[in-house]
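Reminder to self: tokens first, then the designed residues, so the page reads top to bottom the way the pipeline ran.
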């Protein structure tokens, strides 16, 4: 029996058991359109809700059910054509969410209640494809408190509930793949141009096709395709030749039947720059494929410069894409870099709040008309991201890609007010210096040092630092008042140190450089804090070797609106109360016993002293 019958009431036009949503839906932002929003109790045991998906793409369903002790409610998509049960409520009141990828056009969501259960609210939205990159990337990880980021960590960070596709580098045994796929979500593998080149010096359609179709994403039944890394649109004879071969491979893939249920997404960069790359994009669109545009923006030192940089890059790039391919947004996955920890980071200015910068980027995408109807979104790359930023990304995805918000998520200022001159670019302005002896402290200029630290595309940011020469007689100490703290709130302190002599001589020597750090009016969170060494991915000095740098990362809870930050090249043994593996040398009261943190005469440099609000949950 069908339940789309007309209920015979005085107000028949309003009282039907099959409710149709407006065909166009309610546009919430560039990424999200609301198709159904019912916030009243469903009186009938079963009701069909019809909606129109505006494109081939993802929908989000949120249902609120009161089911008592023994009631149940099931939500079924298109019951006449497959009986896909997306959600089952049972055993009490609950709010549940689901995502499905559906074809464009009209669909039916049937809500079936039994044994006293009743639907209290229903939301259906068209949302973007939201990809998490990557799961199981163990070969290279940033220095962070939870790296490598396992599936267990991602669940705690609430990533899985805010995405619908994962990009898998290696299988994470903590991920329940069967459950993930039963929820209608997807898993993509990875292919690279390096694999193609390894098959022969000349790029051929046969070799391209071979790499694509022999990848895990195409051969495994529990995967849905691949992302292919990486293509660009820069004009050159080589690109002209290679796109002729890529076109042949893409055509062969599209015209075959073996891989009809697989997808091919190339990572791309500025494909609007040449006719061959534009032609390739048009072929991909014709075959139903999607492609990414990758943009990795370093933060800017001021809010004004950040607005200018974001508009000048993101909006400009999309405008140029649309000139070459007018409907490209409907087929594009926009990819923003959120690399945020060493050894390669877009968090390059310690006086700016990188979380706010990311929020500003997403806010532009959600609101700027040139991004209207964008198919998908992703961040790149969790293996290069700080754990706090991974958690923050989940909140941004929820805010813009699921809730469809247009306002900013963050309320903090972009320019951090807590300390000044954090990179010593203005000499010692703002700092109180207490040298161990005459000429044992100075500010030095070190060309390319910021780049060596891992500041990505940052210009000269980080090329100045405070130099200190250790003494066995007395510590070198520098300090500054921390301002505008909110009592009870968490903050992070970041700091980088290196051996100046090794740096200048081009030596690569692994050593942990100990520093004494004191913050008054504060409570340390040791389990979120660390100091660790890392090897740069860049060289500096005559030896052309990659130097080692120590990254200090401390999280504290403010107890007052102000505090004193005091940093020394001597350390205190009062930190022995913390387990040694935490590597913490933070003392929250005056040092009682002190000792040099390294050998007499050792020369250190210190900069990137960043204090910013830390995401607690």
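Designed residues (617 positions):
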């Amino acid at each position: 029996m069908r339940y789309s019958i007309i209920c015979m009431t005085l107000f028949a036009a309003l009282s039907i058991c099959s409710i149709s949503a407006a065909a166009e839906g309610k546009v919430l932002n560039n990424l999200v359109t609301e198709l159904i929003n019912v916030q009243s109790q469903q009186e009938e045991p079963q009701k069909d809700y019809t909606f129109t998906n505006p494109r081939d793409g993802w929908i989000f369903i949120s249902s609120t059910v009161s089911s008592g002790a023994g009631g149940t409610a099931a939500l079924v998509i298109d019951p006449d054509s497959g009986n896909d049960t997306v959600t089952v409520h049972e055993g009490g009141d609950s709010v549940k969410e689901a995502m499905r990828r559906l074809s464009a056009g009209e669909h039916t969501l049937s809500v079936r209640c039994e044994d006293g259960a009743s639907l209290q609210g229903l939301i259906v939205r068209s949302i973007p494809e939201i990809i998490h990159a990557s799961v199981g990337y163990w070969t290279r990880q940033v220095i962070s408190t939870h790296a490598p980021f396992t599936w267990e960590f991602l669940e705690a960070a609430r990533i899985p509930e805010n995405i619908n596709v994962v990009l898998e580098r290696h299988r994470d045994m903590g991920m329940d793949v069967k459950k993930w796929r039963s929820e209608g979500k997807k898993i993509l593998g990875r292919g690279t141009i390096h694999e193609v080149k390894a098959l022969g010096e000349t790029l051929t359609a046969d070799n391209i096709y071979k790499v694509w179709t022999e990848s895990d994403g195409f051969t495994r039944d529990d995967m849905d395709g691949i992302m292919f890394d990486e293509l660009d649109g820069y004009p050159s004879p080589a690109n002209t030749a290679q796109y002729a071969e890529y076109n042949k491979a893409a055509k062969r893939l599209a015209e075959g039947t073996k891989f009809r249920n697989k997808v091919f997404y190339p990572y791309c960069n500025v494909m609007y720059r040449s006719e061959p790359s534009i032609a390739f994009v048009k072929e991909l669109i014709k075959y139903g494929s999607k492609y990414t545009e990758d943009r990795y923006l370093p933060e800017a030192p001021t809010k004004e410069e950040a607005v200018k940089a974001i508009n000048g890059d993101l909006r400009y790039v999309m405008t140029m894409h649309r000139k070459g391919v007018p409907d490209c947004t409907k087929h594009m996955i926009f990819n923003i870099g959120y690399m945020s920890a060493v050894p390669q980071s877009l968090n390059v200015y310690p006086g700016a709040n990188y979380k706010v910068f990311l929020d500003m980027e997403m806010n532009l995408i959600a609101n700027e008309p040139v991004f209207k109807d964008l198919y998908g979104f992703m961040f790149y790359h969790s293996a290069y991201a700080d754990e706090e930023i991974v958690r923050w990304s989940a909140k941004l995805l929820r805010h813009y890609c699921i809730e469809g918000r247009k306002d900013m998520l963050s309320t903090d200022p972009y320019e951090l007010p807590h300390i000044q001159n954090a990179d010593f670019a203005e000499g010692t302005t703002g700092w109180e210096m207490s040298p161990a002896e005459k000429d044992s402290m100075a500010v030095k200029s070190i060309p390319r040092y910021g780049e060596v630290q891992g500041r990505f595309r940052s210009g000269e940011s980080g090329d100045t630092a405070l130099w200190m020469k250790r003494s066995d007689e007395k510590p070198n100490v520098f300090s500054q008042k921390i301002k505008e703290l909110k009592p009870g709130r968490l903050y992070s302190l970041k700091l980088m140190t290196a051996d100046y002599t090794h740096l200048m001589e081009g030596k690569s020597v692994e050593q942990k450089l100990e520093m004494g750090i004191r913050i008054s009016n504060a409570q340390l969170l040791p389990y979120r804090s660390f100091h660790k060494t890392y090897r740069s991915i860049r060289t500096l000095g005559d030896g052309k070797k990659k130097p080692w740098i120590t990254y200090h990362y401390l999280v504290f809870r403010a107890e007052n609106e102000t505090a004193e930050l005091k940093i020394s090249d001597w350390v205190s043994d009062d930190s022995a109360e913390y387990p040694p593996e935490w590597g913490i040398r933070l003392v929250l009261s005056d040092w009682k016993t002190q000792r040099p943190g390294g050998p007499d005469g050792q020369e250190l440099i210190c900069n990137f002293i960043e204090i910013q609000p830390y995401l607690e949950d």
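Confidence is low (pLDDT under 50) at residues 1-16, 575-589.
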